UniProtKB/TrEMBL annotation:
It is a peripheral membrane protein. This is ABC-type polar-amino-acid transporter. It is an enzyme of class 7 (translocase). It catalyses: a polar amino acid(out) + ATP + H2O = a polar amino acid(in) + ADP + phosphate + H(+). Belongs to the ABC transporter superfamily. It comes from the Bacteria. SMART domains: AAA (SM00382). The keyword Hydrolase applies. Pfam families: ABC_tran. PANTHER family: AMINO ACID IMPORT ATP-BINDING PROTEIN, GLUTAMATE_ASPARTATE IMPORT ATP-BINDING PROTEIN GLTL. Residues 14-248 form the ABC transporter domain. It comes from Bifidobacterium magnum.
Length: 254
């Protein structure tokens, strides 16, 4: 067993201990153990269906777990209620599909949660939102509707929207997979910048250039298990398991 943490001095921002989950008969997460330090950038790779998205979704409780423990900044994720909403707000998430509110302006998309969930006043929320939109390079689009933006711009807004909640950790689940190729880099650049600024990040992505550039650690999943964890160099140059060797040979030869 892993030793319990001292509540007020957590060394890890995200911890999963012995996490198991089934979807019916399907054992989708098998004894997952993962610890992420503050400022660490993890890239999670693995074949489709290996449980990467499910693992991310359990971290901000979009999915329940059957057994095990998940802690965010030393606090165990509660089952439900106000505490859960608060802990969830500390975990920003960006998905493959942009999930912006289609009937709200870009600015309103970013200010909505800080005003509603954090109780921030509108002027301050808008000031912060404009700063964030500048950081991701779309400040000039603030008054537009999501449909007027390109996919790459929308995904950068989705990142700004998540950052507006001042999350302690950001989860990215294939944030560039739905984008036209010419828009992939503008989103990855924002992610690289965030990583450089010290954001704690868990990123599911097939972008191996990003993984090599930004990741502190690569986590390889297959069949609901974490099979390998290593530095990018260690993982890409010397994958240990046959599953990882097979996976890498498939993605790197294209
Ligand atoms: N809501 C769900 N209900 C039933 N099965 C699911 C659900 N979500 C995912 N699965 C299954 O769980 C497995 C892992 O899925 P997922 O976490 O999406 O994998 P990955 O992100 O690595 O591709 C897959 O076999 C998938 O079909
Ligand atoms: Mg997935």
């Amino acid at each position: 067993m892993l030793p319990p943490l001292v509540e007020d001095n957590p060394k890890y921002l995200v911890e999963l201990e012995h996490v198991d989950k089934h979807f019916g008969n399907l054992h989708v997460l098998k004894d997952i153990n993962l610890r992420v330090k503050k400022g660490e950038v993890l890239v999670i790779v693995g074949p489709s269906g290996s449980g990467k998205s499910t693992m991310c979704r359990t971290i901000n409780r979009l999915e329940t777990i059957d057994s095990g423990v998940i802690r965010i900044d030393g606090q165990t994720l509660p089952q439900e209620g106000k505490e859960l909403a608060q802990l969830r707000a500390e975990v920003g998430m960006v998905f493959q599909s942009f999930n912006l509110f289609a009937n709200k302006t870009i600015l309103d998309n970013v200010t909505l949660a800080p005003i509603k969930v954090r109780g921030m006043d509108k002027t301050q929320a808008e000031r912060e939102a404009m700063d964030l939109l500048s950081r991701v390079g779309v400040a000039s689009q603030a008054s537009k509707m999501p449909s007027q933006l390109s996919g790459g711009q929308q995904q950068r807004v989705a990142i700004a929207r998540a950052l507006a909640m001042h999350p302690k950790v950001m989860l990215f689940d294939e944030p560039t997979s739905a984008l036209d190729p010419e828009m992939v880099n503008e989103v990855l650049d924002v992610m690289v910048e965030l990583a450089r600024e010290g954001m704690t990040m868990l990123c599911v992505t097939h972008e191996m250039g990003f993984a090599r550039k930004a990741a502190d650690r690569i986590v390889f999943m297959a069949d609901g298990q974490i099979l390998e964890q290593d530095t990018p160099e260690g993982f890409f140059e010397h994958p240990k398991t046959e599953r990882a060797q097979d996976f890498l040979s498939k993605i790197l030869t294209h």
